[in-house]
Inverse folding.
């Protein structure tokens, strides 16, 4: 009887976790693979997470970050474009996704589109007048690119 009770608890716990729990597991595994430099495996896991939770901004961000890193490591322009698309998909679903706002700004600066990066962060600032984070990111971006007066 205790074995049946334990099995029932496990089944109920899995049912309660639902697809969201599976997507979180895929995202966590994708992050682990990304950290190991296995970008293809990471993309696969993030895609699986996205299929379980369509529209999840974190999945889009993770995919964008992975393609962004691949673009740096393998010098593939197509990966830059893909990363930017995923970052925009993330921000379309969660305009206040701080990591994504920063990552997109960094990508734009890396692509010699600094004015686009500043415009993007300023738009974020205007949409969230009480949020200090857009201003912090603008200052950080200026500092990282040697404009200490602006920072």
């Amino acid at each position: 009887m205790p074995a049946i009770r334990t099995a029932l608890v496990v089944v109920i716990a899995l049912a309660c976790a639902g697809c969201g729990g599976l997507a979180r597991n895929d995202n966590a595994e994708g992050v682990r693979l990304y950290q190991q430099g296995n970008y293809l495996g990471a993309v696969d896991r993030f895609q699986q997470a996205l299929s379980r939770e369509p529209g999840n901004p974190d999945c889009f961000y993770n995919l964008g970050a992975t393609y962004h890193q691949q673009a740096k490591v393998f010098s593939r322009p197509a990966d830059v474009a893909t990363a930017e698309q995923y970052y925009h998909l993330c921000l379309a679903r969660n305009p206040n996704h701080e990591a994504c706002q920063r990552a997109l700004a960094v990508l734009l600066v890396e692509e010699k589109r600094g004015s686009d990066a500043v415009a993007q962060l300023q738009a974020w600032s205007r949409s969230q007048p009480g949020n200090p984070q857009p201003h912090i990111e603008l200052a950080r971006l200026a500092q990282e690119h040697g404009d200490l007066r602006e920072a």
User: Anything to note?
Assistant: Confidence is low (pLDDT under 50) at residues 1-20. Helices lie at 2-35, 39-52, 57-74, 77-93, 98-110, 114-127, 133-144. The two ends are 66 Å apart (CA to CA). The first helix runs from residue 2 to 35.
